[in-house]
Amino acid sequence: MATLRTLARLPMPRGSAARSRRSKPRSSTLISGSSTRVASGDPVLQPGLMAAGPLRNLYSLTREELGTLLAGLGQPRYRGAQVWEWLYANGARGLDDMRNVPAAARAALGSCATLGSLSVAREQTSKDGTIKRLYRLADGNAIESVLMTYDDGRRTVCASSQAGCAMRCSFCATGQRGFTRNLTSTEILEQVLYFHRELVHTGARVSNVVLMGMGEPLANLRHVIPALHRLSSDLSIGFRHITVSTVGLAPQIIKLADTGPPVRLAVSLHAATDEARAHDAHQHALPAGRAYGRMPHIYRAHTQPRVV
Q: What pTM, to 2 d.p., does this model score?
């Protein structure tokens, strides 16, 4: 039986990834006084299974599937475990980084596989070290992710779960843009993994993940739940260091509790009453709240006993 640790929080714009709160006051502005880098020539690869032409995305494969792929290339199956270790534990940024994998095996992999499906379209770095990225997906859509560093040593990645959002919250730029599609579990994982593989080379690691970027995570549980498991199994991030945010979809809160891992849950209340949540001065603030998550329903969803 999965349990959820709930963190009630007041409004946070869901269309842009959460900003850090630090023990010492610092500027968290991402635009003013920030540097911007636009990456050119980054490969745009198909999400999940395929990249340019017949290439496989190695991040979409399990340890066992990596062994099968290498065996099909005439290599010993145990090479799959070596490659897996380089991908996740050692933060390899390319096949050439895998020093204990023979050149012949790396060449064979390079002929049919690639590392990752996201390309960095833009990056902004604030004065306090917060890094905000715009990733381009294979189909041309864009998503945002943020790496936040804290004075106590935490490194938290705020990741997106959807391209766009269907919740239509009036205070959220992503919600006003509309919904395009759900992200795959690999696309969710890769947002964290790209930061992880850079931190590994500095002696640090991603310590926390919050799904508070673009999209409503509980509207994409089919891919979010496998991504949560992979964050734990592949990147060794404990479930209690992972927070899933929601506008308050009560039925999906129950489903996550019943079928998902014991992660933390953050509910975007926006206001203290259902009336205030449903309306701001001129329009509906949280339309989904009226249909799926009035506050008593949300409270019952995460407190009622579960029968497993």
A: 0.76
Q: What are 258-296's pLDDT values in tens digits?
A: 999 999 999 877 665 656 555 543 444 555 555 555 555
Give the separation between CA 164 and CA 183, rounded to whole angstroms.
10
Count of C-beta atoms within a 10 Å radius of residue 15 = 20
Q: Are 71 and 62 in contact (CB under 8 A)?
A: no
Alpha-carbon distance values, 52 to 14, 38, 41, 93, 104 (Å)? 32, 22, 14, 18, 22
**Four-residue CA torsion sign, 205, 210, 215, 220:** positive
Among 235, 146, 147, 227, residue whose Cα is nearest residue 182: 227
Cα 77 to the center of its chain, rounded Å: 30
- Could you tell me the pLDDT band of residue 160, with boundaries at 50, 70 and 90? very high
Instruction: Average the pLDDT over 188-217 and give the result.
Output: 95
Give Cα 225 distance to the centre of its chain. 11
Other Cβ atoms less than 10 A from the Cβ of 113: the count is 22
